Amino acid sequence: MAIDFETANEQRASPCSIGLAWIDDGVIASVEHHYIRPPGMRFASFNVAFHGIGPDQVRDADEFPAVLAMLAPRLSGRTVLAHNASFDISVVRNTCDVYGLPYPEFDYLCTVKLARQSWPDLTSGRLNDVCDYLGIKFRHHDASEDAYACASLAIEAMKVTGAKCFQSLAAATDVTLGRLNSDSYWPCSSPKPQADRSPRSQASRAAFEDLPKSEAMLGLNFVFTGTLERFTRDEAKARAEALGAKVSGSVSKKTDYLVAGPGAGSKMADAVKLGVVVLTEDEWLSLIGG
């Protein structure tokens, strides 16, 4: 099954919507959606602009513990799909932490990684771009529609690779299943791309040669904006490039993440318009391993 969250603000522990697409015997059997009342009911304007959900829609909705209690038995034994799974799984983990809940237990796969392995000529791993490439029609930034698109993408990948189940799809694409346990997790990972051997890249890597490597960074496109607390933007750029990421000065369709500090301006608006995932500095540090 495929899952997608929308969040009320920049905090991962603020789910306000969840969409699920249930897959049986290689076809989408059903799609469902649930609003979630987030802790504190704080909605950030750029999130509302992103998905259109505000306090009025979720005021009478269940909070996360009730939604999780309803879904957890149905997740048992399933492989959970998510596009940019590091985001959706972090929503589950962080929200469970806020409420003091054990994590639900399941294996999971990131369909960004599956898509890049299944269709190597893709120029972007973003959900709408992959679905445009495959001819999958959906309404972006609606949780149930995004879950449907994610499930459809995975089914197409099974057809391309000849895989009969999601475990064999992972094996066929050299993507390692992630796992969420009651008190721990490990990420879904894919093969590392060939390292950039340019002099500039080598200099950046030499400056940060002791950095912990992060699968989540390799091959992704980042933009930094606003005032970062722990680094200058040049330092953040060098750190990202040392780990295999690309860093641009402006947000575009190729941007995977915007890392935003206080004072973020027009780049934030561009990210919202294009559907780029926005990270705080702390979330970025968590993504790259500290």
Amino-to-carboxy terminus distance: 31 Å
Q: Give the helix proportion (percent range).
A: 40-55%
Major beta sheet, strand line-up: 4-5-6-7
Rounded to an integer in angstroms, the radius of gyration calculated over CA atoms is 18 Å
Q: Regarding quaternary structure, how should these chains be classified? A: single chain
Number of helices: 12
Notes on the structure:
Strand 2 (15-24) and strand 3 (27-35) form a beta hairpin. The chain has a 4-stranded mixed sheet with strand order 4-5-6-7. Strands 9-8-10-11 form a 4-stranded parallel sheet, with helices on both faces. Helix 1 (45-51) runs parallel beside helix 11 (266-274) and helix 9 (199-207) packs across helix 10. Residues 193-214 have low confidence and may be disordered. The protein has helices at 45-51, 55-58, 64-75, 85-99, 111-118, 127-134, 143-161, 166-172, 199-207, 233-242, 266-274, 281-288, and strands at residues 2-7, 15-24, 27-35, 79-82, 106-110, 178-180, 185-186, 221-225, 246-248, 257-260, 277-279. It is built from 12 helices and 11 strands. With 290 residues, it is an alpha/beta fold.
Keywords:
290 residues, alpha/beta, 4-stranded mixed beta sheet, 11 strands, 19% strand, globular
Set out the fold topology:
Elements: E1 2-7, E2 15-24, E3 27-35, H1 45-51, H2 55-58, H3 64-75, E4 79-82, H4 85-99, E5 106-110, H5 111-118, H6 127-134, H7 143-161, H8 166-172, E6 178-180, E7 185-186, H9 199-207, E8 221-225, H10 233-242, E9 246-248, E10 257-260, H11 266-274, E11 277-279, H12 281-288
Parallel strand pairs: 4-5, 8-9, 8-10, 10-11
Antiparallel strand pairs: 1-2, 2-3, 5-6, 6-7
Helix pairs in contact: 1-11, 5-7, 6-7, 9-10
